[in-house]
Amino acid sequence: MRRFAAVSWIAIPLAGVLALSGCSSVKTGGDELQIVANPAAARPAVSPAVTVKPAGQVLATGSVSAVAVDEKTSTLVVAVSQPPSLRLYDLNALASAPVNMPLYGKVSRLTVTPGRVEIAEPDQGVVQQLTLPDRKLTETKTGGEPAASLAFGADRLVAMGAGKDIQVLPPGGAARTIAGQLYSADDVLDTGDGVVVLDRLRTAVFSVDVAAGKVNEGLRAGDGAANAVTDSYGRVLVTDVRAGALIAFSASPLIMRQRYPVPGGAYGIAYDAKRSLAWVTLTERNEVAGFDVRGGEPVEKYRFPTVRQPDSVGVDEKSGRVIVGSAAGEGTQVIQP
């Protein structure tokens, strides 16, 4: 069982309404989580031109939609938007040419378990599974627009985006669906203490009872929940791009434990379990910051200049290296703190 770190409530002012143009601030239908009439998913803040040289090494990968690291095989996986493909780098030999693997469409999310990468391609309605080191791709058609896929025991949990549900895909046989309360199912996370789904439209998180097939209680996740990751303490860490914050939720029960201000367009997030560091990209500033999340509130330990539009981030826990992907076509950055 995972232990919980000592946590405390961090008070910062809450905006009364979401900063959405053309939207009312009136709650509708008694829904405590929806605070605007026409919610819209948070987007990354647009980055300015780079004025400071990016830290570390920059790999010429083009426009990046997601990055991930498989520790088991020391493989850096970079999802490139045009043409849609994966580039696989040996983390022990980054100067070597990567292996290129074509995909059906742009990747929205890469999720790794040792020796296995889940790949969501919403525009093509498929999730693919890449096994390593054999580099075998296996596809599954979902009948919708999958936003994220997660290995969950022998099954896979697929967050179906605008489909407003989660598909449970067994190794064989028919899939089953978990629905209810969601406006969009944008990511699904297993904390070890419970499963949580991120809903960007409602800027909220919900607990999920997979065995019972139910979406349970939900909580607001700031003014513009963008991305989420699990940490070593049974929590889900969420970036709030509109209010500029890092928010921590326990999963069982679902409780907001921390809300810490992180100005600058907090968007991408990755977690280094070996060092208890949450790495958050700040797209308004072309920066990435590392926060120690072991205590009662996050403590900033590192901050580095990045490539332009640093929408995605990953971490190599063996070495502590941070991987930042540019959505503006300026490559993939590798930083050694």
Automatic annotation (TrEMBL):
It comes from the Bacteria. InterPro entries: WD40/YVTN_repeat-like_dom_sf. The keyword RNA-binding does not apply. Residues 1-19 form the signal peptide. The keyword Transcription does not apply. SUPFAM superfamilies: NHL repeat. Keywords: Signal. This is Lipoprotein. It comes from Amycolatopsis balhimycina DSM 5908.
